[in-house]
Amino acid sequence: MSRHSFDPDIAALVGLNAAVIFQNITFWIEKNQANRRNLRDGRYWTYNSISAFAELFPYLTEKQIRTALDKLIKSELILKGSFSDDRYDRTCWYALGDCICPNGQIEWAKGENDTFAPEGKPSAPEGKSYKNRYKPNINPYPSRGVVDDEAEKILAAYPEDRIRRRADCLLAIREILTSGITAADLIEAVQSYASESAGFTRSKVCFSDNWFSSERWQRYVCDAQIQREAAKAKEAEALKGLAVWIADRSPLCRHISPSQITALLAAELVTPLQIQAAGLG
Question: Is residue 211 within 8 Å of residue 217, measured between CB atoms?
Fold first, then answer.
């Protein structure tokens, strides 16, 4: 029975699914380097198709695998290449990224158990031993002391009992904010969904990782924007009515508040002289 493992730091950066796949890719790259196979463009590579990954990880869908690989590539943990001469062959090749291997190859950590024969033994490739783990040349992970307060605040607005895969959620939230959506709009969207789904049974609710990553927040952001535009239009119509009162010096002008007078002047619907003539000066 095969066992799948992952590095917690990698999981914190790109999510659990991507971390498990990264561990598999790393294993095969290490093996290829040890055996001097698949050296291209100064790097050791491994290859696999999405369908092959799906057989290795039956608990992941092909969409989840593609998303995980995209995260690994975007975070520069891996590189993607294509070395097939057959243009119909869509098998992708993967190498460790510059944040792991800036020189194009793995530098092994000291003091680890040998995967192959001890150095100097005839069975050791080229008389050398190779280790079973990589050693990053620089630290590609954010400091554990660095907290994305803005993303944390937005996630905190989500119903607590439906929060799942916190690291994935924070990464998705940061991507949403980077796309141009404001934090205020996203918080409002979260609050709208929380209110709308308050009476939902557990089978009908959407967990936070899916809600943020599958763009289910978009409807709520759009609805809020439509409501704000409608409120602005309604307010504009109301101001036009007040402007008519002032122009006619209607007795109803006594009901106009100072804030409404300020709004009328800002919208240039009335002049200061009209305000005074209506007895509102």
Answer: yes
Token reading at 70: 């995209």
User: Exposed (0-12), middle (13-18) or buried (19+): which is 48, by Cβ within 10 Å?
Assistant: buried
E strand spans, the chain: 39-40, 43-44, 46-48, 78-81, 92-96
> Does residue 70 surpass a pLDDT of 90?
yes
Question: 8-127, what's its fold?
Answer: Arc Repressor Mutant, subunit A (1.10.10)
Residue 49 has pLDDT above 90, yes or no: no
Largest Cα–Cα distance of the chain, in whole Å?
Answer: 106
* % of the chain residues with pLDDT over 90: 15
CA distance 7 to 37: 25
pTM of the entire structure? 0.39
Domain boundaries, the chain: 8-127, 149-215, 233-277
Residue given tokens 């967990």 in the structure block: 207
Q: What letter would DSSP give residue 278?
A: T
- In three-state secondary structure terms, 67 is helix
DSSP annotation of 127 reads: G
Q: pLDDT tens digits for 175-209?
A: 888 888 888 899 999 988 888 888 776 667 788 88
Instruction: Report the chain's mean pLDDT, rounded to a whole number.
Output: 78
